[in-house]
Amino acid sequence: MIIHPSVKIYPNVVMNTERGGKIYVGKNCELLNGVLLMTYGGNIIIGDNCSINPYTVLYGVGDLTIGDNVLIAGHCLIIPSNHIFTDISTPINQQGLTKKGVVIEDNVWIGSGCSILDGVRIGQGAIVAAGAVVNKDVLSNTIVGGVPAKLIKSRT
User: Fold this and answer.
1) How far is residue 20's CA from residue 153's CA, in Å, rounded to a whole number?
2) How far apart are CA 133 and CA 150, in angstroms?
3) Is the CB of residue 72 less than 8 Å from the CB of residue 92?
4) Are 149 and 130 in contact (CB under 8 A)?
5) What per-residue confidence (pLDDT) applies to 36?
6) Exposure letters 50-87 (e unless 16+ CB within 10 A, then b)
7) pTM of this prediction exceeds 0.85
8) φ/ψ bin of 64: left (φ > 0), alpha (ψ from -120 to 50), beta (otherwise)
9) Does the active-site annotation cover 83?
10) Alpha carbon of 120 to those of 1, 135, 137: distances in Å?
11) Which pairing describes strands 150-154 and 142-145: parallel, antiparallel, or unpaired?
12) What is the pLDDT of residues 79-130, one digit of tens each?
């Protein structure tokens, strides 16, 4: 684990690397109450000047990369993996995982209660509206929302 000394870590933050993987948190970040960073064998990389708000869960199993100046509101879930479920004769929990990973570029705002799913890249300057479920890439400088998330408008 590499946590820059300037990072503010609030009570009840959990950073777990027991199953392998690494956690890196850059300069001037804050991890607020109840944030969970769980690597599960993958890596979680958070850039500089980021705010991860209360009760957000970040998994690293397929690798999660968060750029600089990213705001993630409370109660969000970012899952850089997915269960394989194609064989109906085998229990889902025995079929393994896909691990495409998640990348969130610089200067992104993710609203409260969002879920970001495996294989997604959120482009620089994008905004994800509260409650959205993001299962496809988000272009730079766009605003998306809904379930599943769809383009609302461009910021340019």
Assistant:
1) 40
2) 9
3) no
4) no
5) 98
6) bbbbbbbbbbbbbbbbbbbbbebbbbbbbbbbbeeeee
7) yes
8) beta
9) yes
10) 24, 6, 5
11) antiparallel
12) 999 999 999 999 999 999 999 999 999 999 999 999 999 999 999 999 999 9
